[in-house]
Amino acid sequence: MKADHPELSEAIAMQIELVELQRRMQARMSTPFVQHDHEFVPARMRRGERLVDFADVQIEWSDFRLVFRQSADVLQRYEVIEAVDHALIQLLARDGNRLQAVTVDYYARTPRPDAVVPAADGQPAILDQLLAVALRPFLARCADVWMTRVDPAKWNRPWCLICGGEPDFSVLPSSGDRWLICGRCTAQWPFTTACPFCGNDTPGGVTSFASRDGRYRVYGCNECRKYLKAYDGRGAGRPVMPAVDTIATLPLDAAAIQRGYDG
Q1: Is the distance from CB of 147 to CB of 187 less than 8 angstroms?
Q2: Using CA of residue 184, residue 188, residue 193, residue 194, what is the dihedral sign?
Q3: Average pLDDT, the chain
Q4: Which of 2, 103, 124, 184 gives a 20 to 30 Å CA spacing to 52?
Q5: Cα–Cα nearest to 227, from 247, 255, 248
């Protein structure tokens, strides 16, 4: 990809560094143990509420500070974070109590996309995005545990049943509905062909185009102008691999943006 798309080489390198950092962190984690009564899951799913509360994530805060700080360093190295914001974030990383409070507050403010509460004034604009990146290995481990205990077919909502996050990728299985993939915890669940961001399902309301090899697709909503990428698993020789496929489709991000869609 770097050879074919030199203009994307730094974006590709940055994403690979973040994936490697998150993989190293996940290898150090223990499996979270969560126990609720038998009515907990059905009640939450009926109300459209995420299943994982922050206490269920069971974060080791020294590990979180490490991945938070190193993720910020990666983003700053590729000029995604301004130097002044990076300095503020490094100060936050060194203040364990404040970082913990900010992280708990972030998760409480983002129960689902249509109920997000903005951060307090004075915080770097990119802080919420960075917290989502740093939380991903911890939430992904929770998703691994929870997805063995629930039936995602009973969840027909456009936000994640595990953490309430937005989808940032999807997969077209050999049969049945499209499955959305959470950008915050990587959980997967089936959803209709409607736009998951605004609910638009009018005929012709969503434009679709494919990569040259037909392996990937983009669905662009002509109402809200957002788009979602997909791995076409119909007849494919492997399952979707979000960490790989998200990076492999960076040229499609550029193509979607050129067509006027917003990532």
Answers
A1: yes
A2: negative
A3: 93
A4: 124
A5: 255
**Amino acid sitting at position 123:** Q
Q: pLDDT (tens digit, 9 = 90+) per residue, 143-177? A: 999 998 899 999 989 999 999 999 999 999 887 78
Sheet holding 167-172, edge to edge: 188-191, 178-182, 167-172, 227-232, 216-221, 206-210
Q: Give Cα separations from 67 to 3, 112, 174, 221 (angstroms).
A: 30, 24, 36, 34
Domains, the chain, with CATH or none: 6-146 (no CATH), 154-258 (3.90.1670.10)
Please state whether beta strands 216-221 and 206-210 pair in parallel, antiparallel, or not at all (unpaired).
antiparallel
Please name which of 140, 147, 157 lies closest in space to residue 243, comparing C-alpha atoms: 140
Q: Is the overall model pTM greater than 0.90, yes or no?
A: yes
